[in-house]
Amino acid sequence: MIKNISLINGQTLTSTTGGDLFQLGFFSLDNSSANGYLGIWYCNLTPQEGTVVWIANRNKSVNTSMASFNLTSDGNLILFEEDKIVWSTGTRSKELNSARLQLLESGNLVLNDSNSILWQSFDHPGDSQTYLPGMKLGFDFRTNTSKRQVSWRSPEDPSPGDYAHVVLPLAVPDIVMLKGSSKTHRSGPWNGYGFVGDPMMASRPQANPISFTFVSNQNEIYFTTNYRASPTPVLSRTVLCANGTFQRWRLDRDGKGEWQLLWKIPEDDCDMYNRCGRNSVCTWNYYTVNCDCLDGFIKIMENGSDAGCQREKPLNCSSNNQFSKVQNVKVPDTENATVGGNMNPDDCKNLCLNNCSCVAYAVISGSYGCITWPSDLLDLRTFGNGGDDLYVRLAESSTKKHRWAAIAIPLLLGLFLLCCVGVLVWRKRNRASTRLLLQLPNVKEGDSTTYDDVSESRSITIDSEDSRLHNTTDRGVGMLNTLGLLPSYDLCTIKIATNNFSDGNKLGEGGFGVVYKGQLEDGQKIAVKKLSRNSSQGPNEFQNELSLIAKLQHRNLVRLLGCCIEGTERLIILEYMENKSLDTFIYDKTKSSLLNWQKRLEIIIGIARGLLYLHQDSILRVIHRDLKPSNILLDKDMIPKISDFGIARIFEGDKALEDGTTRPIGTFGYMAPEYLLYGQFSFKSDVFSFGVIVLEILSGKKNRTFGQTNSNLNLLQQAYKLWKEGRSLEILDDAVNCSYPTIEILRCIRMALLCVQDNYEERPTMTEVVMMLASDEQLLTPLKQPTITSTYSEGDCSTKEMSITITGR
């Protein structure tokens, strides 16, 4: 507690009620005295984003060598820079020299006199992005002021950022995340023990030390948390990050005293406000977002994009008395909702029926009871557990449709099964010829070649003089065109689009040839892969990539638009990726700063989902065989897409390993040991490559060059060494800011080390990898040190990406 004193740079006020948890003083985020702030932070922790809990002058920095913080005799707190007032509480005590300033163990800076509290920092959560137990987040009707949490501009700039956490003063109050004036997330109504938009809030074991309270009355509405009664309360804070992520952290006193991330919002894509549009329900299934219209609604498009759903038939007030029940959902946005009070479901239904404008109702336990909605239903999502039931009013035709559905659906299913049997028979008869046309290489005149037709267990001999086979590449692509899988472009169109393959349109170069940027006449941007005559890959790889990508569709795979075959030209036309490839970001010190932890995690998860689709969920079971950062492309939203299927293989049967190659092809540093040394490959070969990529994304370093500065240890061995020594976080790229969730990063590192185990049987499947990325449970599989080294140096090959072909085993 201080009285009538001045605080200057280098002096601090420490909370003194028993734990010395917080300090008040001047600090700088860039080690510059010219850019200083007066604030409160956790003792023994360097002030940084997330650990600073309050700032007086977040809008304007001061020169700390000329600044002072003063408690005046009349009860005012003033921050001076020389003789200029930068910030002040504007308070005044009734008695001179009676004001006292105290920093409490809760982190609350309190100014009081003998009669009352004059001012306290907890009344101003907007002065920081960090929310502490005891603070109020809400709205005061008496003063018409909002107590909101506001993000920093960036980790180095604490001025108010783009995001705010706000309680909207509605009939049914909501806590929302705002970016400017637009909602990005909504909590849903309070039900007495948690928010309906987060059904696991009260049941999370980690959250048990914190009790939640929501108060709504004629004077104010607010949300607050408090520590539960405990001999050693668990320290907790909630941070609204500069990127709009809302995170709850807990200090692990039993471990190393590190902050652990307990949960965050958004947790998945369905947490994004109104992700699927109006009258549509968002469902998250670990891999993708599903948007489904409510019963009686159909999808609509606006400006060429999905805008949600609208009714098939308008409601008729006198005859529409049926409702469709939607279970386990976050109820719609309550901005226009009406509160009916505590009543049972039947009474709430009748309340809705008696109001012609009512389109849906729900009964929420707690303060609000029956809630009705008069218009479009926004921001609906499902939950696997928890949530509430929503009753949506149906038009008359929809109710009749439900009655007919009970009769029609079994009949349609039977007809569908018969059609499926017919299609399977037809496909079996045509698969052999189609596969053969897609896989044949160009046959020179006078040659005779024998191929094994696996599907028919026989060999086929093809003579180049056979009139049926003038050019197998053209015939293979022709078959794809016949099947409607692959549009064909003429060479003139592609030349115009790429400015005649000019160097200015060149995007990159690889084993296939050169990739060019292009733009079609309709404005669509494309990427054109042009097979070089001197390419290490030839017609086989060209046909292989066409046949595979044409049959594979996934948001994390690059999309094939078509091809062009004229004369000697062989071109593949792909969707254009604005951000090029992953390697251009993670190895570049400037661009890597754009990849915070959340974005890196999203890229890792996206690659994992794409691989899972290739290995298990697609109509083909595909092994990529050349997975590396340069083959991971990034679209305008930084969504990763796996590309380059030139040497991919379809894996047939249930064998653990495939011995079908005597010439391993791939890139040093990403090839699994069994593939590099013995030519054996399997799905676990891709898993190994994925593990290397994850470690490179985390570290910002290449596996092939890491040993140059780390005692001849490659990246895999160094990551394992740090793991065993309990120093795994030291491998992180410096560009990852300090507000990363330790638990998530350690889980990723351990998962990656499991993926790069020397024995392929000890590596997880991609299904297991995706589960590891989504689960907070401890991974119990024991780790072994990777022994494969990076000493494949050939001249300066260790410092540049090099694709190789090794003959023999």
Short description:
With 809 residues, this protein is α+β, with helices and mostly antiparallel strands. It is built from 12 helices and 46 strands.
Give an overview of the whole structure.
With 809 residues, the chain is an alpha+beta fold. The protein has 4 domains: 1-123, Agglutinin, subunit A, CATH 2.90.10; 126-267, no CATH class; 275-394, no CATH class; 579-805, Orthogonal Bundle (Transferase(Phosphotransferase), domain 1), CATH 1.10.510.10. 20% of the residues lie in helices and 30% in strands. The strands form 13 sheets. It has an 8-stranded mixed β-sheet.
C-alpha geometry: globular
Beta strand count: 46
Structural class based on helices, strands and sheet pairing: alpha+beta
Strand order of the largest sheet: 25-24-32-28-33-30-31-29
CATH topology of the largest domain: Transferase(Phosphotransferase), domain 1
How many discrete domains?
Answer: 4
CATH superfamily of the largest domain: Transferase(Phosphotransferase) domain 1
Q: In oligomeric terms, what are we looking at?
A: single chain
Helical percentage: 10-25%
What is the level 1 CATH name of the largest domain?
Mainly Alpha
**Can you name the CATH architecture of the largest domain?**
Orthogonal Bundle
Stretches with pLDDT under 50, minimum 5 residues: 204-208, 430-476, 478-484, 706-710, 788-809
How much is the radius of gyration in Å? 32 Å
